[in-house]
Design brief:
Layout lengths: L1 H15 L12 E10 L2 E8 L3 E6 L2 E4 L1 H14 L7 H10 L5 E10 L4 E7 L4
Antiparallel strand pairs: 1-2, 1-5, 2-3, 3-4, 5-6
Amino acid sequence: MMKKVVCLAFAAYLFTFPIHSEATTLGNSFSFKCMVITNGIEHEWEFSSPNEYEFEKGNTVEKGSAAKQKVSALFQHLNVTELAQVDELVEKMGTYGYKDVERFEMKWMDSNGRLYTWVWNEEDK
């Protein structure tokens, strides 16, 4: 009988105070910047809230909707969270078409203003 009361009380608590889990998106982030160097060429994806997007490859810079699409796609592919591990991020860059990474840097500021930074060099292998 006591187990039923405890279970019912716990269930009532869960319904009273629902747990909110929000997916990490650029829309609920303050900023995102990812830089990777492969074959001596630097690639950079950048987002600043509310709506600034930029993609750079070498000396070429794109802004606007084309850059937004590229930045959003990379952010989603990397599945950015505060728990991300740098080795996994570098591996995901490889599956995104950026193999033989020489250097990787990523900075992300979440919706609470917390800044996360990941840095990896080829020598870190």
